[in-house]
Amino acid sequence: MSRFSHTHLVMVCALAMGFCLFSVPAVHAQQTADQTCLECHEDQMLPTSNIHHRIMNFELVGGVRSGCETCHGPGGAHMEEGDPSKIFSFANATPEESSQACLTCHKSLQAMDFNLGDHATNEVGCSDCHSTHSESGLVKPDPELCMDCHRDIMAKTNFPSRHPLREGKMQCSSCHAHHGSMMQNLQTHERLNDMCINCHGDKQGPFIFEHAPVAEDCTLCHDAHGTVAPSLLKQAEPFLCLQCHESHFHAGREGLTEPKDIPATGWPSENPFGEAGWRMAYLTKCSQCHFMIHGTDNPSQTVPGMGKGIIR
Length: 312
Hints:
Shape: elongated
Number of strands: 4
Distance between the termini: 84 Å
Low-confidence stretches: 9-29, 250-275
Mean pLDDT: 75
Helix content: 25-40%
Largest sheet: 2 strands, antiparallel
Strand order of the largest sheet: 1-2
Order of helices and strands: HHEEHHHHHHHHEHHE
Structural class: mainly alpha
Strand content: under 5%
């Protein structure tokens, strides 16, 4: 028993010594290579706040310290001949090549869905937005970076009704997952509405009397990037509502200028405002009466609505 234990101890010590003899020269060689790179590429020295700089100095990857060659590949031939084609360069790489180099390490968390996102589909690589050697890791700050490509969205952020991007109270990344997502590149894997509810919790419900578009998709009525109509509505009231609902009080219609003899149909209670009903339906906002438009737990007292008028 003691002989076995002694043999086992010798094997463990031998493995430990072998690891030390392997790892120390490797680390030293990596440090020398980095210093050699900086002799020509001094402007590419990583800032101390850069995440790659911290990893390069404090972590071991497979027993070897991460350095320039971790991303750019073996640099021996490049250093000997000075030929740029002898080393991997992000500036000359295709979007797919640059992204695959990054995804070698960034395989989880936010980047795990990158190949499913619109950026990868439209041949936008990691290096188009990220600068590995910068302090922040981005070519430009968010949202300025996003607006360079998404010009149509930039125009919407200047509309009268908009989210406070220009004031710096939120960014594109507050809602969007730039590295890809299973849900329309949003910071959620459940429903689109969950993004809106993060800030607009009073609209969540559940309500006894629900407005169907609210439960289905907020963007049926709202454009989150900005609109001319108030409250981020795609159209002003009542025209937005009239896309799904017919106008009220249609039993006794009246022209906009002069009364016209139009046969009245339906129950008399459908037209409580008489001849002015048609004018009121088009010249007022639906939410003046139906102001609990996102849903309510209290039934309305109108008989035709069967308690679903979302009035109070």
